[in-house]
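job 3f2a | input accepted
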Amino acid sequence: MNPPGGSWFYWAIGVAVGLPAGLIILTEWHHALVRRQSYLAGPVNLLRNYLLPLAALLALLVGATQVPTDNTWIRIIATLFAFTVLVLALSGLNATLFQGAPTGSWRKRLPGILVDVARLLLIGVGLALILSYIWGIRIGGLFTALGVGSLVVGLMLQNSVGQVVSGLFLLFERPFGIGDWLMVATTRGQVVEVNWRAVHIAKVGGLEIIPNSVLAGTSFTNLSRPDGPHDILIVTTFLSIDPPDRVCALLSRVASALPQLKPGVEPSTLAVGTATTWAGGATQYSTSVGLNSATDAFAAKSDFLRWIWYAARREGLHLDGAYDDFSTPERIEAALRDIVGPALRLTEADRQSLIPQARMVRYGADEAMQHLGEVPTRISFVVAGSIRLTATDDDGLVVTVGTLYEGSFLGLTTLTRQPSFTGAYALEEVTALELNREHIEELVTRRPALLQDFARIIDEYRNTVSQLGYREGAQRGRVSGRER
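job 3f2a | predicted structure (484 res):
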């Protein structure tokens, strides 16, 4: 029996005191990390539940009870301890370097395949050290055997290995990164993941997975490099009977409202040729739009084509040879009866007199229906859909101040010739009935009480905007669509 005060005694006292103290400290640390939702909570939990108890057990067996280190059970416990250290190191590095990385940093953009390669190398080195120092195995022969086995496995899985090698070549060459936009053959989308086997590209309609060997063996375009201003050309076709100047003005006006438009760059439109697609002939127009980045190209083209569909029909122009028959007397009469009539208290005679002067129009989602500071030339009555009203705060930011729904008015200041003090944008497809200023003036001349109602509503809008602390459009001036 060892006498008191021997080395075993200090090992026993150290474990008896250190293990409970360590568990208490690590438990409190873990709870604090969980409350902060820190990614380090997992590694600390591993340290508390596995590494510390294994270390205490090894200290008791080797230090206190003097069990030889070449004992099989000691080696097994030491192997578990070393493997736990390896897992803790990998988990801690992943939590500190990658999981908690700020958005947009190089650590966040680092492809997953590179992280996997580094993790595999660390695991290989760790296992080699465990086999060498704990079990006394000569790892040189093991590496030789692994090399021969790897050659056999590589021949069996040459297609899969080819994907991995191609992925590594793409990674080291770095022709693209996570978040870049690629055009591969007929595919266009954003890179969201690069792994051992393939590149994942998010596009309209789903996620396309392209094997690394295919991507490495074909040409592709990285639309995100070089990063900077980018111009796109959008070609549209109108009938030859449409006045070219009106078409060019309309296309440029719609393009100037795109939110992706580069500040200070005005779009331009040119008639570039004729076509015989339809009877009577057609004219093609090319609209040049300057963008902040190539990544905005798809969204800008999508918005432009949507909005020009609605705008061309409102202007009576024939995009792609289409004639608009939406504004029919039946629809106008129904809107006057169900929407405008109750709001303005119109008689049957009033409604019948307004049918020839009114028209039904449609606006696309997010399209501007009224700009801050412009003087409206017509009143619009919302028949279907909803409209977002905007104003500007003291910092010049455009903010939402209200929403218009079915039965509401828009453009009441047309009677007073005052600039509008709110902007208006369609939240969805909006159907509206429009009456020009002269027809509204003729109506209120016959019914003075209606003018008083309009004046009251205008004052209510102005007071609402003022009470919210926003500036009126008259002070701000016109705000283009890209400032939304």
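job 3f2a | The chain is about 50% helix and 20% strand.
job 3f2a | closed
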